[in-house]
Specification:
Layout (H helix, E strand, L loop, with lengths): L11 E5 L5 H12 L2 E4 H7 L3 E5 L4 E4 L1 H13 L3 E4 L13 E6 L2 H10 L4 H12 L2 H9 L5 E5 L3 H21 L4
């Protein structure tokens, strides 16, 4: 994959515990800035990258190697917003910036319950947020200066996040001679 300098637009990773607002944020960013939104879960399903079903968590298991092979060429072009609840298996070179969405535990519990999460799946996702699992995973997987934590509790915070990322995108374009 060519280096960052070969891309006309950056690649952005938006990650966080399920229910933190990743898809909503990514959709708004894609619409506002003309970037391509890659919803990894959907792409995996459409591309046959899901393996056996995990009964305990009530979800299919992702074949990480297969999805990475599919995504490699897509990300080499730049201009992508990748949306997924995990981040440690993506190559560091793919992303110019990583945003980890965080949500208040009570609010997250309500969001996940409304999605039908129960039992161990619900408990583990709440604990994931409490213990900052995704944030720590991002910090361990990417350079510290590209990992940013964003609150995602309200429509106002969502709007602020869209604006903040839009400003970052503008600065990236200026810094890379794209404007």
């Amino acid at each position: 994959m060519p280096g960052v300098g070969a891309r006309n637009l950056p690649n952005i990773l938006v990650t966080g515990t399920p229910g933190t607002g990743k898809s909503t944020l990514c959709q708004q960013l894609a619409e506002a800035h003309g970037l391509q939104w890659i919803e990894v879960g959907r792409l995996a399903k459409e591309s046959g990258c899901l393996e056996e079903y995990d009964e305990e968590y009530q979800c299919p298991v992702l074949n990480e190697d297969k999805i990475l092979d599919i995504m490699e060429d897509m990300l080499s072009e730049g201009g992508k917003i990748v949306d997924y609840h995990g981040c440690d298996f993506f190559p560091e070179r793919w992303f110019d910036i990583v945003f980890v969405l965080r949500t208040d535990n009570t609010l997250l519990h309500d969001r996940l319950t409304n999605r039908g999460y129960t039992g161990k799946k619900l408990e583990d996702n709440i604990q994931c947020e409490i213990f900052q699992t995704i944030l720590e995973e991002a910090r361990e997987s990417y350079k510290e200066e590209i990992v940013h934590e964003l609150p995602s509790n309200s429509p106002e915070e969502m709007e602020s996040n869209v604006d903040r990322i839009g400003l970052w995108l503008l600065n990236w374009k200026q810094d890379n001679g794209v404007l």
